[in-house]
Design goal:
The chain is mostly helical and 882 residues long. Among the domains are: 164 residues, no CATH class; 124 residues, de novo design (two linked rop proteins) (Up-down Bundle); 170 residues, no CATH class. It has 37 helices and eight strands. Strands 1-2-3-4-5-6-7-8 form an eight-stranded parallel beta barrel, surrounded by six helices. Helix 1 crosses helix 8. The radius of gyration is 28 Å and the shape is globular. Keywords: Carbon dioxide fixation, Lyase, Magnesium, Pyruvate.
Length: 882
């Protein structure tokens, strides 16, 4: 990789930028475009170290007439989105989905050969991939700032770039594609980029299903076809037909933790939408197969099923089509609230899979393997992955909501007050009721609205086939009784459906005690009989980092996983770890391959669940080529972690991390929790107060509407700091930890040893380096200059920037580099290209925030919209924002 951006990427940025310029000129005149270019030129020269240009940029922005502020912010926001399209297009074309150092791109074929060289037999490779259980859980956390209508236009723009690049021999095609590109960019410019209403949970679920329809539906069979070919080359056999190494689940419409908008009715609607969408997609597949499978040769089994017909495959498919059409009609009737009176429907995966499998086996038996392994195999692969529901829907609720139901129940039955009992008495009661054959909940029990909603959710579970549902996650789980409570409610209300129950450990204290809690849980004989010796545990990244600081949280997450692996091995229970990661470093984000290989040995043993959140879904799975590469990366990483696990950390590395985490935690808490100026500074210098008006997602920005930073959700907490480029949650405390150790004898040597030999520590430093490169303390200082008056708050800001500077020095010292991102030029160049377009948005945002405060929140609608556009633009420019 050359130090400059690849030529095609640079050319596409220019093509899109020029087209946007022409569109704006047509709308607002060339004089306005000249203003934009003046602003960009000031910003670019300011980035080259010209302080005069920096001052002139700020002065120029402050003197803009009010009617120019909105179109200026829109112009820079739009360019940043177009730059993202160009980069996304480049990554798809050159298979660079993740930001790796040159030469470290994971390639599945090479890994399979390496695994064989390490002593793994061809059969072992096939078995490991066939039994692999990787579930990518799509979540609707409010980090996707771009409207769906614009995303569709951006996807079409990407298609135009492909057409232009492939038109050398057909110039007329290039001309047509260029004309379509101009049209789409004009459409985007004339479309409001800000939603006026928050999306509902159902809207979010529809967006998730659209990703499957537009991208994954094609990418999934392509991925399996590539995997098939690799296994044939290296192991001499195909992947089993029903194997699905990578599957998809969703939280959209099921995550009710802190979101009052997710109700039992919403969950039921989302499940029905999944059935409707799946039926609609399969109908297209089945119509194609009915058209293509016109053969008459068939085995006796298919002839017996089809009857005395000349085209047996078409006959089987015609019947399947009728059932699938009925399924779509049934789902539509249920959604619209009228009675369905049609024919039999398809309710389970096997009802769709078995007839298709019969066709496949027949074709193979009569020597038509080439046809069997064409479109029919693609549909079989889709059924194996998506079933008849597209995704498995997870459900999440807070532990206290379940405890409230049992408290109301025991009080109503005269059994005492559940919430006053100690843990032993709670367990005794819950286990007795789990073993009892009589119902516990009275038929006409009058309970609170909150408890009724919890029970209604379990009724939805009872009405569904288990294959439509994923895991029931309990947030804020602290004791075995939290899990037993859900098991009891599922038994009492959930009918025959029993879902895996995963406690979620997310605060520092919860992570430190996770192994102990699960050990107690697995020691309960009555519980072991419920779980079939399989336990899922979720590790939370967002709230632990907000609670303890990133370095201390990362080490606590690592130790919690080690503890859980040891506990489950001792009990003879299969463990699946569910990683609740976000898009940013501060929420466990980063390249998936590096993240998986940095986990403790044994924690990724062929199974893994991980959240894919917000805008990262679009970046990783929004287009078929990129989705294909993302799935390969996950399969590659899980296969490597399973067959070639990382080394166990040396005892002295663990001691080092204990000390580093202790220092970092103390420094973080000393500022965030103990400095009385911190909360006022946060409120003054970031757009946190205005952020609540940006209609990003269906969840409130706060768990409670009163209280301070501790009530703020991890996503807006990080989003607010990212907007001013200080990125504080992801680094505060790390500088003190590293600087202290570097000053001690042997400190540099041991930190470099850990960096080079321990994937966990090396990955952490890589993520920290990327984050430091995206941060900009000069921009943060300008926000402070414009928005903060109190001398004590300014003093705190100065200290924070000094801490940032010491951390940057320490990281460069450990990495033995003169500047950040020396070894990852693609990221460095991507940041440098975007900065002249992001910088004006920062200047405008600070100005608009001050005007908003001066007007006590009563600025004009255009200025309010301009403020929201600056947030969207900065988020687009920095990409992994929340």
């Amino acid at each position: 990789m050359s130090h400059d951006l690849h030529e095609s990427l640079r050319d596409n940025v220019r093509i899109l930028g020029d087209s946007l310029g022409r569109t704006i000129a047509d709308d607002l005149g060339q004089a306005f475009v000249d203003k934009i270019e003046t602003i960009r030129a000031h910003a670019k020269r300011g980035r080259q170290g010209d302080s005069l240009q920096q001052r002139e940029l700020i002065e120029y922005l402050r003197q803009l007439p009010e009617h120019d502020l909105l179109p200026v912010t829109r112009a820079f926001n739009q360019f940043l989105n177009l730059a993202n399209i160009a980069e996304q297009h480049y990554r798809a074309r050159f298979r660079r989905v993740e930001d790796y150092k040159p030469g470290s791109q994971p390639v599945l074929g090479e890994l399979l050969k390496r695994a064989q060289q390490a002593g793994n037999s061809p059969r072992k490779l096939v078995e490991t991939l066939a039994n692999m259980r990787v579930e990518l859980v799509l979540t609707a956390h409010p980090t996707e700032v771009i409207r769906r209508t614009l995303i569709q236009k951006y996807d079409a723009i990407d298609e135009c770039l492909t057409a232009i690049e492939s038109s050398d021999d057909y110039p007329e095609r290039g001309t047509r594609a260029q004309g379509r590109l101009e049209e789409l960019i004009s459409q985007a410019w004339h479309t409001d980029e800000i939603r006026h209403e928050r999306p509902t949970p159902v809207d979010e679920a529809k967006w998730g299903f659209a990703v499957i329809e537009n991208s994954l539906w094609q990418a999934v069979p392509d991925f399996h076809r590539d995997l098939d070919n690799l296994l044939l080359d290296t192991a001499g056999e195909r992947l089993p037909l029903d194997a699905a190494p990578i599957r998809y689940a969703s939280w959209m419409g099921g995550d009710r933790d802190g979101n009052p908008n997710v109700t039992a009715r919403v969950t039921r609607e989302v499940l029905l939408l999944g059935r409707w969408m799946a039926a609609d997609l399969y109908l297209r597949d089945l119509e194609q197969l009915k058209t293509e499978l016109s053969m008459w040769k068939a085995n006796s089994a298919l002839k017996a099923e089809a009857g005395d017909v000349t085209e047996p495959y078409r006959e089987v498919l015609k019947r399947l089509l009728a059932k699938m059409e009925a399924t779509r009609d049934w789902a539509k009737a249920e959604l619209e609230g009228y009675n369905y009176d049609g024919g039999p429907i398809i309710e389970t995966r096997d009802q769709l899979y078995s007839p298709l499998l019969a066709c496949y086996r027949s074709l193979c038996d009569v020597g038509l393997d080439t046809i069997a392994n064409g479109a029919l195999l693609d549909t079989l692969r889709r059924v194996a992955v998506f079933g008849v529901t597209l995704t498995k829907l997870d459900l999440r609720q807070e532990a206290s909501r379940h405890a409230q139901v049992i408290e109301e129940l025991t009080s109503a039955l005269g059994l005492g007050h559940y919430q006053e009992w100690d843990e032993a008495k709670r367990q005794e009661f819950l286990l007795a009721e789990l073993a009892s054959r009589r119902p516990l909940i009275p038929r006409r029990w009058e309970c609170s609205a909150e408890s009724r909603e919890v029970l209604d959710t379990f009724k939805v579970i009872a009405q569904e086939h288990s294959e439509a549902l994923g895991t029931y996650i309990i947030s804020m789980a602290a004791e075995p009784s939290d899990v037993l409570t859900v098991a009891l409610l599922m038994k009492e209300v959930g009918g025959q459906v029993t879902l895996p129950i995963a406690p979620l450990f997310e605060t520092l204290n919860d992570l430190d005690h996770a192994g102990e809690v699960v050990d107690k849980l697995l020691s309960i004989p009555g519980y072991r009989s419920l779980i079939d010796d399989r336990q899922e545990v979720m590790i939370g990244y967002s709230d632990s980092a907000k609670d303890a600081g990133q370095l201390a949280a990362a080490w606590a997450q690592y130790r919690a996983q080690e503890s859980l692996v040891n506990v489950c091995e001792r009990h003879g229970v299969d463990l699946t770890l569910f990683h609740g990661r976000g898009g940013t470093v501060g929420r466990g984000g980063g390249p998936a391959h590096a993240a998986i290989l940095s986990q403790p040995p044994g924690s990724v043993n062929g199974s893994l669940r991980v959240t894919e959140q917000g805008e990262m879904i679009r970046f990783k799975f929004g287009q078929p080529d990129i989705a294909l590469r993302s799935m390969e990366i996950y399969a590659c990483a899980v296969l490597e972690a399973t067959l070639l696990p990382p080394r166990t950390p040396e005892p002295h590395w663990r001691d080092e991390m204990d000390q580093l985490a202790k220092v970092a935690h103390g420094a973080y808490v000393g500022v965030v929790r103990e400095d009385p100026d911190f909360v006022p500074y946060f409120r003054a210098v970031t757009p946190e107060g205005a952020l609540g008006r940006l209609p990003l997602g269906s969840r409130p920005t706060k768990r409670r509407q009163d209280g301070g930073v501790e009530t703020l959700r991890a996503i807006p907490w990080i989003f607010a700091w990212t907007q001013i480029r200080l990125m504080l949650p992801a680094w505060l405390g790390s500088g003190e930890a590293f600087s202290t150790r570097l000053e001690q004898p042997g400190g540099r040597d041991v930190l470099q040893e850990m960096r080079n030999e321990w994937p966990f520590f090396g990955t952490y430093l890589d993520m920290l380096e990327m984050l430091l490169a995206k941060a900009d303390v000069a921009i943060a200082a300008y926000y402070e200059h414009r928005l903060v008056d109190e001398p004590s708050l300014k003093a705190l800001g100065k200290k924070l920037r000094e801490r940032f500077g010491r951390l940057e020095e320490a990281v460069l010292d450990i990495l033995q580099q003169e500047k950040l991102l020396e070894n990852t030029p693609l990221i460095r160049q991507a940041i440098d290209v975007r900065n002249p377009y992001i910088d004006p948005l920062h200047g405008l945002q600070a100005e608009l925030l001050q005007r908003n405060r001066d007007a006590d929140g009563a600025i004009s609608a255009d200025l309010s919209r301009a403020l929201m556009v600056t947030m969207a633009g900065i988020a687009a420019g920095l990409r992994n924002t929340g």
